[in-house]
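Design review, sub-item: ligand-bound model
Attendees: FS, YL, KQ
YL presented the inputs for the pyridoxal-5'-phosphate complex:
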Amino acid sequence: MILLNDFKQQYGSLKNQIFEAIDAVGQSGWLVLGKEVQQFEELTQSLLNCYYSIGCANGLDALELALRVLDIKPGEKVLTTPLSAFATTLAILRAGGKPVFVDVDETGLIDLKQCEIALQNNQEIRFFIPVHLFGHAINLGQLKHLKEKHELLIIEDCAQAICAKSKEIYVGSIGELAAYSLYPTKNLGCYGDGGFVTTNNFDYAEKVKCLRDYGQTAKYEHKFLGLNSRLDEVQAAILNRALLPKLAEFTSRRKQIAKLYLENITNDLIQLPRIPLDSDSVWHLFPILCENRDELQTFLKAKGVQTGVHYPTLITDQIALHQNQNNYEIIGSLSHAKKFAQYELSLPLHPFLTDAEVEKVINQCNQWEL
Ligand SMILES: *Cc1c(COP(=O)(O)O)cnc(C)c1O
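KQ shared the predicted structure:
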């Protein structure tokens, strides 16, 4: 079976570094918020060209921490997308905000033109969480324009798009803060849960550090009602020694595979991914659209190709959201987002795919007929 993600192969190739990492932490005698987390923060600062990086427990918390740093008030509206991991919206609700959903465009990312209209008509909206979905960079020029015109406070959800660029600028550079997940399936994943927040603002960085550690400013001095959301030393050590040194190589392999798919899948029944203008994508996923998605998925499975669906249910259709009708708002129709929920299929895309496996996926896609 050609897998969507192959963690056994990853472990096989990184085993020595992972053992060294665990050993180093054990030998150090320091298990939480120590030298390894600090080094991880320094490494990601220089990788992403930002002033501050702060490790935390997961991507959901990274988003919640960022919203709380911006002092969101109960019921304040946050513009966001209905097509993402549920965590994007869950973070807004947990921080006390009210998600306001706008449709995506043909790329699957939130439609910035629709956002512009929504913001014109709803001047009270101050917060915006765009998601760099599938590894694509949303157009940062347009995002910056929107931010300045409407004086928005932006948190970029970069969970799927570490190192993606829009016209040579990294995602995460336009927002007040950016949130990353280190969940194993992400382009930079650890051996369990992890996340981090980046920002160029000193005060925001200090407040994230405080909020991730019970809201304490010094030991046993609690200034805010914080979270327990710390990145483990063991996870940071594994990232520093095993995964971060491989990120550039893994990302370029992802780009290579995406290029092969784009150039060689030629079945008229399959619509290849559309990419936002100026995006240098890091291809977290390879999302195709197919009107007979379920048949194609069954066919590929029978041929030994595992696929995924991102996402089968829009966030606006999730039961958890409907517990309270006043929980959220939808502006306009969500017709593009619905199309993704109905027709999207993700082909295998990970750094350990061989050329022969990529070729097999391409051939099977091309051979499929109704
Ligand atoms: C994975 C993901 C998250 C949540 O990250 P966790 O580490 O799983 O909490 C948030 N947003 C997006 C877009 C994601 O893909």
